[in-house]
Amino acid sequence: MIDDTDDMLPDQQPLGAVTFAENPEPRCPCLLLLDTSGSMAGQPITELNAGIREFYNELQNDSLAIKRVEVALMSFGPVRLISEFNTADCFFDPQLVADGDTPMGETIRKGIDLIKTRKEQYRANGISFYRPWIFLITDGAPTDEWQSAAAMVREGESAKSFAFFAIGVHKADMKILKQISVREPVKLQGLKFREFFQWLSNSMKSASRSNPGDRIQLSPPLGWSEI
Amino acid sequence: MASVPLKPFFDSSGNRIHLGKKIGSGGEGDVFEILPAHSNVVAKIYHKPLEESKQEKLRLMTRGCNEELKSISAWPTDVLHAREGGPVVGFLMPKISDYEPVHKVYGPTHRKEHFPHADYRFLVRAAKNLAAAFFVIHKFGYVIGDVNEGNILVNNEACVRLIDCDSFQVRAGDRLYYCEVGVAQFTPPEILSTKHFKMERTANHDNFGLSILSFQLLFFGRHPYSGVYSGTEDMPLEKSIAEFRFAYGKNSARKSIAPPPNSVGLSVVPAQVAGLLESAFSEAGARPEGRPGAGEWWDALESLESRMRRCSADSVHTYYSGLSACPWCRLEETSGLLLFLSVDRITKIDLQREWQKVEAIARPGPIPLVSPSNFLHRATPLPPGIGRAIDMRNFRQFMGISIIAILAVLVLFGAITEEFTVPFLTVVVIVAVLFLYPGAAAAEKRRRRGNLESARYLWDLWNRKWIAEAGDAAFFAQVNQLRELKGKYEKIDREYRAGLLTLERSIKDRQQKKFLERISIDTCTVPRVTGGLKSILKSVGIATAADVTRNRLLGIPQLDNTLTNELLAWREKMERNFLFDPTQGVDRADVQALIHRYQPLLKPVERDLVQGIQRLQRIQGDIVKKRTTLRPAVEKRARELAQAEVDYEVFSRTPEELIAREIEGFIFPRRKSR
């Protein structure tokens, strides 16, 4: 056990601060919680991966969004942090593989923690930020305890700490999603992940041009949802 | 490529205007080239029919157009109609090419990418030109209204152009045509709470945006109201602006806000500029005409420009001469940031010398051995009586085990039958008593075992600490990390040098290419290459002899085989005129492009190396220090454990071991054992 944590911290910290000094634009954080349980295997996971790649592509081609939008990826089944909050120039192709169960509760709790940590970093570095967005994408029902996660979502929404959106795919349990998300969950039409991510990148691009504050301006979920 | 509207449009005098390809698209309309191509005018066509007031506003703007406005903005020069006498559906404006949005200038990352040559003078000049542009707009009574990071453009000579002029506020007599849009980051506090912008905007509002952008240009993209807020709640930028929380101002502490880490304060600019910023961002600025105007900004920046000094350590650093030392050197050193790309070298360190520093740091050497076995101790004498009690206990236990053994033998041979049950049980009870009776020694044994356990625990703790802090593992881990960094550094440096070498090898090719690039296609005297053909060639980008290659000529329908060959022959003739000048060497601009490519790659490695070497020095110092300061404490624990072990030894043996030990004592002379 090498106990040099005291020494490690100050050496590690300035790197983040350098990034913020190189690019002090206000940040628009977006966290994607992606279901990679066994039932997503095959076509769904392929489409999801392709959708994410396009999402990053879209963001990279926008000179303001590339500096402002920060995306973090977390997959669940099992819960893995695939990519920390980063601007789209540090894109990391996730190549998600579907296996395992659906620990939705755990991923939401960890996701909210991740947002909290990132916000603290913004604050410490004097970086303004927009209200973070969390998107939960699932095709099933939680296989773990999710009530505490739902409580955290409610609390975060009412404190305006983040905006939480749930997207149900295929046989997702929309009833439970309704209990987790304060906002009405949306059902994905078929496997229109690409359309969804296209819509999301457009929303992020316009959000990153609006004002860092608490207003949320989303265009209606057209072209990919079952509304 | 966008579809080209076939129908011509009409300008205000009824002239037909043919649109070319679409070159831009926005929420309100699209922007098209005008045919014939390469004219300096473009057209914006709206998606939707315009309200009458908006049409009138555009007519007023085109009537107000003049050379001054055209020189600093994409001012509407004429309106466009879909049919003669019909409603206004668009307008003509000057074409602005090779400009980038201002956020790519003030943000260090994008600046280094898109404006690699820009130094601080460039940033000051851009801010000054911005003020000049605002000055012109205000001089003619217009208000920009929607000042933002996307509709102000800068080129590589720091010239500034304003676009999206059709949203400007226009006054005609007592009629006011509003600017109905705005971006919060550039909207002054006094009108920030309005839900819509159907209201009169003033130059003082614009001057807020001007001051914000000037600040962003002078302070590396930082927003003046974005800082480290000491309150617990979130502080969105909008709220911070509304509450006048200027993070760099003299009142910032009272506003519970401080400049972010790795930023510079107002001291890097002259007091005059700092004064303008203070008044622009404080409550006083919100009063009518309370903020510095474009003219004041121009004057202050002009004066700063004339008082710039070049850093002696890094020629790309230029700074306000009123400072005693270069602020950029200091910021780069403390933060690890690369503020400006150097023009003449890719690195600021000498790897050889840095590595000598690593080698010069004395290796701490193996950790001095501290172990309980280093310490010989004599057991603490037992209190009188206890010794005998131990002997008794040992005897009792010896007897007990013997009886069990005998019984086991008896059971094995079936000697115990029913009539022996009672004596058997009696024997069991005797054995149990022999075993369980605590005897006088038990309390002492417990005490000594307690001592041993805590001594062992403490030793373990301190030993681990000793190994971690006085051992050399951390030192060598750091050395290995540095070695890795050195490898990375050398790899990038190698690539850079290889690039230089390639440049040198291709000097001739490049010189020739530059030579051909100076020969315009217009000078081509081949008879069949007519003026018309020349403009066709130019429209597809073949403008000089350098562009004339077989590949590029292939796809042009107007060229037959002979014409193509004639053009190629013309190029060859021009090539023969080229004289290689070996004294010219490599073009500075080419070397700089190479530097600009590799410097940003090298910088983080360089930073990690320098910081890593300092860290190695610290680690080494710590180890040496810990070896002296920790040693007594660790040794004390080792000694205590050795003592506790000896003390307990007398209790720790089973009777058989004691017997065996006695026998051993006969055979070998008594030795110390743990």
Please explain how this structure is put together.
- The complex is a heterodimer of chains A (227) and B (674).
- With 227 residues, chain A is an alpha/beta fold.
- Chain A is built from 7 helices and 6 strands.
- Chain A has a 6-stranded mixed β-sheet.
- In chain A, β4, α5 and β5 form a beta-alpha-beta unit.
- The longest helix of chain A has 21 residues.
- Chain A is globular and about 45 Å long.
- The N terminus of chain A is likely disordered.
- With 674 residues, chain B is of the alpha+beta class.
- Chain B is 50% helix and 9% strand.
- Chain B contains 22 helices and 16 strands.
- In chain B, the strands form 5 sheets. Chain B has a 7-stranded antiparallel β-sheet with strand order 2-1-6-7-5-4-3. Chain B has a 3-stranded antiparallel β-sheet with strand order 8-9-10.
- In chain B, a hairpin with a 6-residue loop joins β4 and β5.
- The longest helix of chain B is centred in the C-terminal third of the chain and has 42 residues.
- Chains A and B meet through α1 and α4 of A and α4, β13, α7, α14 and α20 of B.
